[in-house]
Amino acid sequence: MPSLSEETGGRVERLMPGATIGIIGGGQLGRMMALSARYMGFRIGVLDPTPDCPTAQVADFQITAEYDDINAIRELAERSDVLTYEFENVDADAIDQVRALAAAPQGTDLLRVTQDRVNEKRFINDHGTETAPWKAVNSFEELDAALDEIHYPAVLKTRSGGYDGHGQTVLRSDADLERVRARGDRGGGFPPSILEGFVDFAFEASILVAGNGEDYVTFPIVRNEHRNNILHMTIAPAEVSDEVAHEAHALALRLAEGFRLAGILAIELFVTKDGRVVVNELAPRPHNSGHYTIEACSFDQFDAHIRGIAGWPLEQPQLLKPAVMVNVLGQHVAPTRALIADHPEWNVHDYCKAEVRHDRKMGHITVLTDDTAETVAGLESTGCWNDLKKA
Ligand SMILES: Nc1ncnc2c1ncn2[C@@H]1O[C@H](COP(=O)(O)OP(=O)(O)OP(=O)(O)O)[C@@H](O)[C@H]1O
Ligand SMILES: [Mg+2]
């Protein structure tokens, strides 16, 4: 694992309104970051290959190029005071190369840790926090040996590049292992991977922690429901014991301090039936499960991210009201739009993506409520999300 360098995290130069924030990646997370930044008076540049992408629509300028185009990253840095990103698969070396041109307050070690599942697991364990049992595996022989230790059921994941469950296979038996072998024999090869023990969780949860390099604050622990490996719903707050909530906040602060975090870190969790809190993975950016904070908290995850990278002070966010957030995927756009007029309680967010595709995140809806169970039932009873099978 890369050791944390001196430039990582730590005190962040304070940015004043009028300064320019350059965002690598122009999807919905960049868009919502940009909207927060605009309220504070910052200017926004975005690097994204799709002209008029969701972030560009609310930005001052777009550089239309691939995310790993070093000339484009250099141009973004030249025109910005600070660089940030909306996804973790950014070329850390490229950011290091342009750090004389623009500040990168999140540092690049955070990227190097979170874009590699092995580095990430090691970092989490080194900071006193439980993960699934795991082993790095680089060949079928190593996979066999790791299975002897970890046993079925287990999850094989590529070390880098996965999202929404892509690049991972659940292994429950030798038959599943044979299928992985056959895939390799057909020329799939064996990408650098990690084998994880399958966590028999009671439910999935997440917690956000924000930092400005010196001080760290946490958002409430929330419960997440996935369908077909994609986040479907977030219920805030999660109904958990004081012990579970305490451990979630404590581990979030340990990780944030470990990174000397600037901006937001999202932590995906498994809560087990016996009340253990196990970290699944980290995302060094705002997270889909944190969208509820826009309406439900005293300041939201995007505000916190911008304040953190701008070196502004952070106070503890307050949950103003419980909330339910549901994603609007491509197939849900037409049915939800047809019902907007009937649901004044829906806080409708549309990311304005030009192309509607099945399973593509197109928007989300947040409902503030005193009764989250009733609100979940009400949303499901609209039928808009009937295509999503319950896992
Ligand atoms: N070790 C595990 N034990 C049990 N379930 C797991 C394990 N790892 C992953 N899962 C399930 O698969 C889902 C996706 O896994 P993970 O978050 O690692 O992958 P991802 O491709 O990065 O997904 P995303 O982009 O949705 O975060 C998890 O939310 C969880 O439901
Ligand atoms: Mg995940």
TrEMBL record:
- What are the record keywords, sorted? ATP-binding, Ligase, Nucleotide-binding, Purine biosynthesis
One Pfam match, by short name? RS_preATP-grasp-like
Binding locations of ATP? 117, 157, 162-168, 196-199, 204, 226, 280-281
> What gene codes for this chain?
purK
Gene Ontology terms: cellular component? cytosol
Q: Which GO terms describe its molecular function?
A: 5-(carboxyamino)imidazole ribonucleotide synthase activity; ATP binding; metal ion binding; phosphoribosylaminoimidazole carboxylase activity
Q: What's the subunit arrangement here?
A: Homodimer.
Write down what this protein is called.
N5-carboxyaminoimidazole ribonucleotide synthase
InterPro entries the UniProt entry points to: ATP-grasp (IPR011761), ATP-grasp_carboxylate-amine (IPR003135), ATP_grasp_subdomain_1 (IPR013815), PreATP-grasp_dom_sf (IPR016185), PurK (IPR005875), PurK_C (IPR040686), PurT/PurK_preATP-grasp (IPR054350), Rudment_hybrid_motif (IPR011054)
Instruction: Give me the reactions it catalyses.
Output: 5-amino-1-(5-phospho-beta-D-ribosyl)imidazole + hydrogencarbonate + ATP = 5-carboxyamino-1-(5-phospho-D-ribosyl)imidazole + ADP + phosphate + 2 H(+)
Q: Tell me the function of this protein.
A: Catalyzes the ATP-dependent conversion of 5-aminoimidazole ribonucleotide (AIR) and HCO(3)(-) to N5-carboxyaminoimidazole ribonucleotide (N5-CAIR). Catalyzes the ATP-dependent conversion of 5-aminoimidazole ribonucleotide (AIR) and HCO(3)- to N5-carboxyaminoimidazole ribonucleotide (N5-CAIR).
Lineage, opening ranks = Bacteria, Bacillati, Actinomycetota, Actinomycetes, Bifidobacteriales
UniProt key word ATP-binding: yes
Chain segments annotated as transmembrane:
none
Might you give the EC number(s) for this enzyme? 6.3.4.18
Q: What does the record give as its pathway?
A: Purine metabolism; IMP biosynthesis via de novo pathway; 5-amino-1-(5-phospho-D-ribosyl)imidazole-4-carboxylate from 5-amino-1-(5-phospho-D-ribosyl)imidazole (N5-CAIR route): step 1/2
Q: Which residues form the ATP-grasp domain?
A: 121-310
